[in-house]
Amino acid sequence: MNFSNNRKAVILVIDIGTTFLKIALFDTKADPIQDFQFKFPHTLIIDKDGKNEFDPEILSNLIEKNIDKILLNSERKYEIVAVAVDSMASTFIGLDKNRKPLTNVFTYADTRSKSQMEMIKREIDLEEVYNRTGCPIHTAYVPSKVRWINSVFPNLYKNIEYWCDFSTYLYYRWFSNQDVPSSYSIASWSGLFNRYKFEWDEELLRHIGVNKNKLPKLEPFSSYVVRLSDNYSKRWNILKDIPFFLPVGDGAAVHIGSGCTTQNRISLSIGTTGAMRVLLENFNKKIPKGLWAYNLGKENTLLGGSFSEGGNVLMWLKNNLSLPNQNKIEEYLQNVSYNNHGLNVLPFIAGERSLGWSFDGSFLISGMGLSTSKFDIYQACLEAISYRFGIVADKLLPSLDDNSEIFASGGAIQSSEYWLQLMTDVLQIPINISNISEDTCRGTSILALKSLGIWDSWNDVPVNIVKKYFPDSSKSSLLREGMERQKDLYEKLF
Questions:
Q1: What letter would DSSP give residue 181?
Q2: Do residues 344 and 367 make contact, with C-beta atoms less than 8 angstroms apart?
Q3: What does the mean pLDDT of the chain come to?
Q4: Do 412 and 270 touch, CB atoms closer than 8 A?
Q5: CA angle 55, 256, 276 (to 5 degrees)
Q6: pLDDT of residue 3
Q7: Edge-to-edge order in the sheet of strand 105-106
Q8: DSSP assignments along 232-296, one per residue
Q9: Which of 272, 295, 85 is nearest to 200 (CA)?
Q10: Using CA atoms, how far apart are residues 92 and 5, in angstroms rounded to an integer?
Q11: Please, which residues have CB within 8 angstroms of residue 285's CB and are 6 or more apart in sequence?
Q12: What DSSP state is assigned to residue 101?
């Protein structure tokens, strides 16, 4: 690809996260352009009935206004050679015949389809569908949501002509509502993707009553769309003829961006929520129970587990327990022993996903007494989330190399040295912190750079480790004891 001689080539990255949106520029070494890293929160609509959605018009306008901003300030100095997008997993929206929204965007955290989920589980061969799609039947995924919309809003359901995720809707919006495909990556997070055929799972579609023609076509993430609609060509003239690569899941992006491109590098990310995953080549084996398998492309599969809890638990505690700032919390934690508070916690403040995928998992604390402090509760929640990762690791690690290492990313865990050491001690595996900032955006830029042919492989730029945490084997039995108590509590309730 030929670039102009007087301007630096860059990738425009759009990162659609659960809590924040980021619009950023990255150079051809996948390094961020420091003055062009815009981050801003967006609003979810949440209610006690399990609602967790957002308005597609509001979010689209917010994204577009910030693209305006970055283009206005960058045009003279930088040449944007591609646009790359990642998105939170398993969003879902219903559109009319003109591909205009008829519903809000449902997120993975929306749990209103509980009864429909239970109905589907009784009707199908769960193990067979699980291994075909890589996803359990759960409210986090699309099948139960389709049933729920049909059940609760039958007239609306009849008028829905297209179903897609939010990032694909954006492309419909920007490219004159043409038949834009979704990537295998985005599709595999839906629970409707057949990971053996790399197509929508027609058997499951028939079961839930969705015509395949109402879903996007599927292609690799390296496919792209060009020629913006007239309106957006005028608005974003410098983008009108450059490739917009198909969006990928943000979990895939952060995995690549954190440098976990080999089988012995495990990514552990904790932002609003959490996940642990490894990238495998040509994986078509039976999935360990409780984990998921998402395809990045035809040759690469992400195997792992994800959680609806993470930094959201800690933020809730800070907001509701009047805790001091992070430095004061860290100071307290550094002077207390693990598992010394007498508390057992199920941290499912936003419901459970891995490993049990319970539809009614909720936040629970046992063992509280008059002597229990707010710091005890905070520490117990850190341990509880770490135990959930430990249980996933027990499923994931047996099939990996003995020399596996973990690379941690995400603002929630990277902001706490105590938590990083705790997690290391729970897992009994070294945890690395790299010099990479904005792992998700970086990963998205890397995928674009490889697709453009600028990078030959994902490992063109090495990952520099700035800090490494080593496990203390003397703490293992104490933390395993806490993990077993959590398992016992879980089994009694779920």
A1: P
A2: yes
A3: 92
A4: yes
A5: 75
A6: 56
A7: 45-46, 52-54, 105-106
A8: HHHHTGGGTTS-EEPPEEHHHHHHHHTT--STTEEEEEESSSEEEEEEEES--SPPPTT-EEEES
A9: 295
A10: 42
A11: none
A12: B
Positive or negative, the CA dihedral 195, 196, 197, 203 is negative
Q: Which residues contact 328 (CB under 8 A, 6 or more apart)?
A: none
How many beta carbons lie within 10 A of that of residue 462, not counting itself? 8
Domains of the chain: 8-250 (3.30.420.40), 260-435+464-494 (3.30.420.40)
Report which DSSP code applies to 92: B
- Rounded to whole angstroms, what are the CA distances from 406 to 59, 361, 410, 421? 34, 28, 13, 12
One-letter identity of residue 118: E
- Dist. CA 445–CA 443, nearest whole Å: 5
Of 339, 352, 291, the closest CA to residue 493 belongs to: 352
Q: Is the distance from CB of 486 to CB of 384 less than 8 angstroms? A: yes
- Cα–Cα dist 262/249, whole Å: 19
> Is residue 242 within 8 Å of 9, Cβ to Cβ?
no
pTM of structure? 0.89
Cα distances (Å, whole numbers) of residue 88 to 16, 160, 255: 6, 23, 13
Which amino acid is residue 399, in one-letter code? S
Maximum Cα interatomic distance, the chain, rounded to a whole number of Å: 70
How is residue 471 written in tokens? 């496990």
User: How many CB atoms are located within 10 Å of the residue 426 CB?
Assistant: 25
* Residue stretches of the chain with pLDDT short of 50: none
Coil, strand or helix at 121: helix
Q: Are strands 465-469 and 405-409 parallel, antiparallel or unpaired?
A: unpaired
Amino acid (1-letter code) at residue 479: L
Cis peptide before 449 (omega within 30 of 0): no
Neighbours of 480 (CB within 10 A): 15
Q: What is the dihedral of CA 97, 99, 101, 102, to 10 degrees?
A: 10
Query: Which residue has tokens 């759960």?
Result: 138
d(CA 123, CA 353): 21
Number of neighbours of residue 344 by Cβ within 10 angstroms: 22
Identity of residue 242: I
Buried b vs exposed e over 218-254: b needs ≥16 C-beta within 10 Å? bbbbbbbbeebbeebeebbeebeebbbbbbbbbbbbb
Confidence at residue 434, expressed as pLDDT on a 0 to 100 scale: 82
Paired tokens of 1: 């690809």
Smallest CA-to-CA distance from 385 within 255, 274, 266, 251 is with 274
Nearest to 18 by CA among 121, 71, 87, 75: 87
